[in-house]
Amino acid sequence: MSVSYRQPGVVLTDRRFSVPLDHDDPTGERIELYAREVVAGDKAAQDLPWLVYLQGGPGFGANRFIGRQAWLERALREYRVLLLDQRGTGASSPANRQTLPSRGGPREQADHLAHFRADSIVRDCEAIRPEITGGAPWTVLGQSFGGFCTVSYLSTAPEGISTAVITGGLPTLDGHADDVYRAAYPRIERKVAAHYARYPQDVERARRIAEHLLEHEPVLNGGYKLTVEAFQSLGIVLGRSDGSHRLHFLLEDAFVRTPQGHVLSDAFQEEVQGLLSFAGHPLYALVHEACYAQDERPTAWSAERVRAEFPQFDAAKTLTGDGPLLFTGESVHPWTFDTDPALRPLRDTAEELAARTDWAPLYDPARLAANEVPVAAAIYHDDMYVDTAHSLETARSIRGLRTWVTDEFEHDGVRAGGPRVLDRLLALTRDEE
């Protein structure tokens, strides 16, 4: 039974669906999907076209907007919007350290999680679309990993899409995870250099914190083990519009003077744990590298292996000299499952996924080359999370795709730019620009 309620300017309806865990076995186990329908309050009774939003991640539920925030303001002018919690996230049969043990041991858990990639998410969308739209195709808005899902959608079920809009989410079609990370480390190095150019005082601050961590390696109040590698991974914020500023404010208040000398402040530790913990999105850590797997090659902890090719990221070596400490970006490592209490019970499951060799293809280049769906994509000029060169190569491979390449926004442009970004991309799909 669906429940409707109001927020300023909108009517919300909670919707729940039952779909197969394995779409190739439709009579087998089923899981629940949750989605929130949003419509403008003054249009609630109208017959409007649908837009389904696919969130970035993987592992994040859909945004919990209040009213008409961000891009939703533009979408609600003409659409009824479905904010889908992709399988395993939010309220959609969540997969985490509390629920996964019911599947059995690490091998069984890994087998279960193999059904939580873009291909299964697309089939979920197609399973619920007839109930939502009466069978009509819908507009798909894919942000980041949601864009990966949208390209998979165009590859496997383009008949379900009337228009596709992608923001910061054009994946490499055939690159291995190793290719992704070889392109990623130089990008994060550029972002770190730009941060230090903006805030040169942070060079010494970051070194001082790293030296303290190498000596003490504290366990934070919530149980997170703050190693120097974990501290470096705070660089993930540098790909956001306000990330450099946020990192600066975090570093400037790291220490507090006590009778025992300078220690990391409680406030610093609390904010760091909030930024680094995967408690709210464990799937991100578990299936992140699997998002790039499409053949018999294992991912085999790709980010960790490739990092060894970039010795400038080795904190211990950096601290023997006087150079700046390099932060890292969007990557998951074996030690991630040791430092984070939300992930420790899943370490062996992660090992199973890293060794897996039976990944199915996620994209169909031939079908994309014959694409007939109007599609537009925002490509951010130096996106820290998704390689610009890979995105442009994919854009050229999708027939009719129109690009908007911009340095006005970072990866979160659809949030920071709000209605203007979505309006620009919809206009491109309609040949209005």
In short:
The protein is 38% helix and 16% strand. It has 18 helices and eleven strands. Strands 1-2-3-5-4-6-7-10-11 form a nine-stranded mixed sheet, with helices on both faces. A two-stranded antiparallel ribbon has the order 8-9.
The assigned structural class equals alpha/beta
- Our count of helices gives 18
Uncertain residue segments:
none
Spatial strand arrangement across the major sheet: 1-2-3-5-4-6-7-10-11
| Assembly level | single chain
Radius of gyration: 22 Å
Q: Please write the string of helix (H) and strand (E) elements.
A: EEEEHEHHEHEHHHHEEHHHHHHHEHEHH
Describe, in plain words, how this protein is organized in 3D:
The longest helix is centred in the middle third of the chain and has 22 residues, at 177-198. The strands form two sheets. The protein has a nine-stranded mixed β-sheet with strand order 1-2-3-5-4-6-7-10-11, with helices on both faces. It starts with a strand and ends with a helix. Helix 2 packs across helix 14 (347-355). Strand 10, helix 16 (388-397) and strand 11 (402-406) form a beta-alpha-beta unit. It is an alpha/beta fold. The chain has 18 helices and eleven strands.
Kindly list the characteristics that best describe this protein.
two-stranded antiparallel sheet, alpha/beta, 11 strands, 38% helix, 433 residues, 9-stranded mixed beta sheet
